[in-house]
């Protein structure tokens, strides 16, 4: 499969490396065609992989993974180009975190709106599925890093796209179908993005980013 990774940070590196390892064609996009971080990633992967601009990546990918800096994701996706996103699944991983006032970060958008919604509104033809944003990137690509069953929450407006993403997350990374909770339409991005306020503080007290949540319920 031809996969676009938009973003050259640690998330782009982790996902890109895993996807190349399992035999996919990956093009990692940045603001510039030969970004330092992109070149570093290219040197680290053994099999076929490419780097380029956000537009190169978005044009190349049959499916697009948004791993951009959340405060700048809309700008990055604009550089990717609306036409290149049209009719494609966009796995929207970035979180709208604002670190400008230090730790813990706040959110650039919250409560009555979310980054997932802003992206779906601006790119109505993209099939946006918010996913993977609630776990660390090492856990994204290897859920077994966290022992036992634990859950991944996704949302989006396109039911078919969500089903495809659930299948791909299983095939690519080993996420079990029964561990994926579909929270509904893209407005649920508000909840999964605001969860980051809790995630960051859990990280602080647990001393590792390699954790996740398990939702359990009563039988009646
Ligand atoms: N770290 C995790 O484990 C984790 C887990 C879940 C979700 N997330 C989310 O995943 C996203 C990626 O995180 P990260 O740490 O890998 O990377 P990051 O440092 O947050 O973002 C790096 C990417 O953002 C692009 N970018 C930065 N400023 C930009 C601007 N003004 N305009 C356009 N693009 C810009 C960079 O472009 P260049 O390539 O040109 O530099 C780069 O590709 C974040 O939203 C984060 O909240 C992270």
State the main characteristics.
9 helices, globular, alpha/beta, 10 strands, binds NADP nicotinamide-adenine-dinucleotide phosphate, single chain, two-stranded antiparallel sheet, 220 residues, eight-stranded mixed sheet
Gap from first CA to last CA: 43 Å
State the shape.
globular
Bound molecules: NADP nicotinamide-adenine-dinucleotide phosphate
How many strand elements? 10
Strand content: 15-25%
Overview of this protein structure:
The protein has 220 residues and is an alpha/beta fold. Helix content is 39%, strand content 18%. The protein has helices spanning 10-21, 36-44, 54-60, 73-80, 82-85, 115-122, 137-141, 159-173, 189-206, and strands at 2-6, 25-30, 49-53, 63-66, 89-92, 97-98, 106-107, 127-130, 152-156, 180-182. Strands 3-2-1-4-5-8-9-10 form an 8-stranded mixed β-sheet, sandwiched between helices. α3 crosses α4. The longest helix has 18 residues, at 189-206. NADP nicotinamide-adenine-dinucleotide phosphate is lined by residues 7-12, 30-32, 35, 37, 67-70, 72, 75-76, 93-95, 97, 133, 136-137.
